[in-house]
Amino acid sequence: MSQTVRTAIVTGGSRGIGRAICKHFAAEGKNLVINYAGNLQAAEETAAECRELGAQVILVQADVSSAAGCEELFAKAQEAFKTVDILVNNAGITRDGLILRMSEDNFDEVINTNLKGAFLCMKLASRIMMKQRWGRIINMSSVAGVRGNPGQVNYSASKAGLIGITKSLAKELAGRSVTVNAVAPGMIETDMTGVLPDAVKDQLLQGIPMARAGKPEEIAAAVAFFASEEAGYITGQVLCVDGGMAV
User: Fold this and answer.
1) pLDDT by residue (tens digit) across 82-129?
2) Where are the domains of the chain?
3) Alpha-carbon span 9 to 173, nearest angstrom
4) Buried b (16+ CB within 10 A) or exposed e, 39-75
5) Of the listed 155, 159, 166, 214, which one is catalytic?
6) Is-catalytic flag, 36?
7) pTM
8) Which of 36, 79, 149, 189 could form an SS bridge with 144, CB 3.0 to 4.6 Å?
């Protein structure tokens, strides 16, 4: 009896955590729809690495903060692979600043990409997954959404919002064998954290009981667990992968 090949959409899949998730899925033999915003070179590098692992891959450039962008993403996924079994809402941006200096545009940009974009994708995924009576939705939250972070009221709000959506949608879809969970990373070694001054990194590490930054592959492993067949009775949960930072 042949095993079902699952198809996964990963938004913001070209770099960092998104790339690690794509590669993990590729190693498991999943079909991949890698969404990216603008960095074609990074997206092509990720796709090449996933194909080397044996996966069928398509790239879709789309702005997930817009309904039209999300609809294009899902249309191309279904055209290529007929269905969508797994959705990972990983696309995210930051526009950091203290609230007194934060513009309304900087607030809206972060909410629109990180939270509204995930909502739009989940709405499209829900229709497909409810009909096929199987699905996995994994939302990429953050430790900033669990405990807050100064200078990130927009980012923290977007990531806390994802936790609320995760819990609510989990209840809506549970009867159709569709699970909805969230992963909340702490400080992870990515391009985003790589540009931080050493003094800032040292200060952040002092707040982590494990005294180190996490690796993108460690986040990918948590996402892959939630996407697995074995996690079919787990829904509405938030898994902090943060070295103890949120404890």
Assistant:
1) 999 999 999 999 999 999 999 999 999 999 999 999 999 999 999 999
2) 7-241
3) 18
4) eeebbeebbeebeebebbbbbbbbbbbeeebbebbbe
5) 155
6) no
7) 0.95
8) 149
